């Protein structure tokens, strides 16, 4: 008889059960409690208590300390540290009218209901000067949540949030699917009136201090009326000497996760010593501004107050407003420290040679700065200081329209758990994203940490640049595929920020449309473009960097009559710039623009290097060349009155570097 623990199978000869099967014979032993298995039972007495055991509390890795008046440190308790943190957050949310912040408590209000009988929550109650309804309630603070926690919040509470097939979080940004530049305002006071760029061509639209305070109060009151707010404390700029501390207060998990990805993420130890932020964003984008308020032209307003070091967002949920608002801030703060802020891509070779890539949409900036043979320092925002270059951000914000694994494998593979996907369309069953679908918007985006790019250089810093590459997609077809620029020419084309778009006309004929964006990012700069150009020239001259103008547009004719320069040729050109071989080439000079063009590059047909050779109609070429030169001159008229350099000599050199008829 085969034994099996406390029971055995009897032989068929002795007893049989139903259908002739052997009966199980139980061996009787002393009475014992029968368990489902041999593991000890759980310690919980209720299902809620069991759930509370599932998550353990995070604890700091370093001793908790506080700075005394004499500069020395003393240890403080975890509870005291938490209260100090909440006191700082309450101060950020303070109403200017009531002169006090709200009562704040850490944690999710839903979780607190379940755990209130067992766990104590750190809270902070300020001294209430003026009693109001909002002063009687607690505002729950969800502080520095992890991506997993933010996923849970978004999926549970925010309609339109889903997990895609690759693990990314798909979200909707509401009615606004892009930035609202006409609704962006900057406070004009005694300081900024003289420092900032105002007037024609400037992105800075003024508002007064009082109107800003009205909008700030509206945003803060809205955030304080909510059961919970999300708070991120993060950094800008990978250069530790010039790092900026930012606090983002928002109402949506989507916004919190977006900024978690896009800003630099502090370590737990850095968060303990974070202290008072250098700049605060109040994102109340779910709530509109009052259109009857002075300076308001719609229900949307994005307001920056440089004196108060604050930004208020009302009437738009588009997350890109936060990213670019902080970029505008860096365009103001960094030059005051003699650091050049740049709207550019940046990569570095294995020998430490750094290249900067400037270019407007459609010029190939992202494609050309992403090179598997080079390290990626960043794709969009950088600083150039006495220490070298550094990325401002901690993530990438990539366009997704028509994205494919073949064309952009790095971006494709980065769309995984932790990534935010904005306004994409996906299959309702499989959750597979259709990147070609423009049903919501053409401006679909992915925001992910830069660590998701395999060849990203961490930390995102590098030595002084060796090459400065200005990209233009010239749909007129008259700019050469590559030109070596003098310092004055580099400044001229940097200030111009040229590319050409193709737009449909009423009669159906498509004509190239010249587009100029000063410093290749006019929407975000705060000072006059010539100030950034002068700083760029000074650094290039000091560190021996070379300027290049690369045309990724048309050759052999304008759009429709010519052909787009092959990407393979452009990559060969960029490779020759990186390797230094292009510096050793022989050069000739073109008419009108006076550009130095090489006579030969390995892997590139020599006949396309001079655009005139590729046009069959030479008269049409010269006519188009003169037309484009005229557009450059007309655009530059707005910058001619600004003095650059002590004796204005630099201004004259820059003007002379433009088209000559």
Automatic annotation (TrEMBL):
Domain of life: Eukaryota
UniProt name for this protein: Phosphoenolpyruvate carboxykinase
